[in-house]
TrEMBL record:
Listed name of the protein: EAL domain-containing protein
Residue ranges annotated for the EAL domain, each copy included: 23-277
Portion of the full-length sequence here: 681 to 959 of 963
Natural source organism: Noviherbaspirillum cavernae
């Protein structure tokens, strides 16, 4: 019986991959991360490509676990979604980001637009519009300064629900953007069904390797089409001057990327903004 037990144990061990164990450990730690205050937001500045002025920033979550160290959102967000933890985390992100953006407004006397990432699951929760409304109320951030970023897959997962929720969100006066555009279905006509304001071109789309002229033509055609549909275009992951030049020639509206600034902790963002020329 003892041997069988050991075998059984060994069998279980062998079946559970390193990956599955890591996931379990992460899930366990994730359940406590909020109450232990292990999350933090970093902000990546976003520029207007006509004026080259900073017009806003995207909030990006960071998790600093005392033992595991820094865990990438690419790793823990999917687990949080799957295990039903994303609603609470998303709520925290929204409130923290709105609070800090409001603080910047008061300190610098200028309006900066805040972009916050939403997961598919948050979009499916019926009280999302009320949550957002309550958050704007509580923090005093003007609605027109808030933009929510959604992925294409989140939008089309359940078209009826997402259309209804997005319409309600729009009545609050906030903006809506499609994140990672160019990686999924990317059917512009399809996206017209949703009340959207902005398309965010994915990094892989922005940094095409197929020669400068081709990629310029490609991006230009895309930007023109988006503009014809009354959507503004933001390029993400801009790392080189060549890419920047291409985007400006293509009349892309805004951009963010390491070329301008990495995502910064709040204090560093304040520092960054205070060094900019007044306007
Ligand atoms: P995303 O929304 O597409 O965010 C852009 C990612 O690209 C960020 O990674 C950012 O740090 C990185 N990035 C920005 N500029 C450059 C560049 O010039 N070059 C390169 N190579 N990378 C650049 P990060 O912060 O690791 O976030 C990864 C993803 O995690 C995000 O992708 C988003 O999908 C998700 N995420 C982050 N924060 C949140 C959040 O608060 N809520 C939700 N639901 N998801 C989040
Ligand atoms: Ca994003
Ligand atoms: Ca993106
Ligand atoms: Ca992404």
């Amino acid at each position: 019986a003892k041997a069988a037990g050991r075998n059984g144990y060994r069998f279980f061990e062998a079946e559970m991959s390193v990956e599955a164990k890591t996931r379990m450990a992460l899930e366990h730690a994730l359940r406590r991360a909020l109450e232990r205050g292990e999350f933090e937001l970093h902000y990546q500045p976003r520029l207007d490509l006509k004026t080259m002025a900073i017009v806003g920033m995207e909030a990006l979550i960071r998790w600093n676990h005392p033992q595991l160290g820094r865990v990438s959102p690419l790793q823990f967000i999917p687990i949080a979604e799957e295990r039903g933890l994303i609603e609470a985390i998303g709520q925290w992100v929204l409130e923290e980001a709105c609070t800090q953006t409001r603080r910047l407004m008061d300190k610098f006397g200028r309006s900066l637009r805040l972009s916050v990432n939403l997961s598919a699951r948050q979009l499916r929760s019926a009280d999302l519009p009320q949550q957002v409304a309550a958050c704007l109320n509580k923090t005093g951030l003007p609605a027109h300064l808030l933009e929510l970023e959604l992925t294409e897959s989140a939008l089309i997962e359940d078209m009826e629900i997402s259309t209804a929720v997005l319409k309600e969100l729009k009545t609050l006066g906030i903006s809506l953007s499609v994140d990672d555009f160019g990686t999924g279905y990317s059917a512009l006509a399809y996206l017209r069904r949703f009340p959207l304001d902005t398309l965010k071109l994915d990094r892989s789309f922005v940094n095409q390797e197929n020669g400068e002229i081709d990629s310029l033509k490609f991006i230009k055609a895309f930007v023109d089409l988006a503009h014809a549909l009354n959507l503004s275009v933001v390029a993400e992951g801009v790392e080189t001057k060549e890419t920047l030049q291409c985007l400006r020639e293509a009349s892309c509206d805004e951009a963010q990327g390491y070329l301008f600034a990495r995502p910064l902790p709040f204090n560093a963002l304040e520092e960054f903004l205070s060094r900019l020329p007044a306007h």
